[in-house]
Design brief:
about 130 residues; alpha+beta; Beta-Lactamase; 5 strands; about 40% helix; about 25% strand
Length: about 130
């Protein structure tokens, strides 16, 4: 694994995921972005605060507790995927399948085809994880 491989895979995701404005690969346990890329330059404050905002979404919370009670699970599990639709953008939060302590975030334009965007984001995450091997 090299940092260049991760950086290249995240940078490539910007062009591969339809309407992708920004992408990041995160170490969820440490709360840091291993690499973050965007179509336009991100301010230093945005680069510093975005990973912190995204981290909390992958921790077990009320949704996980509800899901555990609904399914009869003995303990809540963390979500694998979360989708947040805003007024101007859609955020896709995907936990890694090979490395579940890592995840990717894709911020896409709101008008992008949702199904195709999710499909391409999942494929991009698989390529990012492949770069780790």
């Amino acid at each position: 694994m090299s940092a260049a491989d991760i950086h290249g895979a995240v940078e490539a995701a910007i062009g591969e995921v339809p309407g992708c404005l920004a992408a990041a690969y995160l170490d969820l346990a440490a709360g840091v972005a291993l690499h973050m890329a965007a179509r336009d330059a991100l301010t230093p404050a945005l680069r510093e605060n975005l990973p912190l905002a995204w981290m909390g979404l992958f921790t077990p919370g009320p949704l996980a507790l509800f899901d555990a009670r609904l399914t009869g699970a003995s303990f809540p599990t963390t979500p694998r995927e979360l989708i947040v639709n805003g007024e101007t953008s859609t955020h896709l939060f995907l936990r890694g399948r090979l490395y579940p302590d890592y995840g990717a975030v894709f911020v896409c334009a709101h008008g992008a085809n949702f199904g195709y965007t999710l499909y391409k984001a999942r494929a991009a995450l698989a390529r990012i994880e492949a770069a780790l091997q």
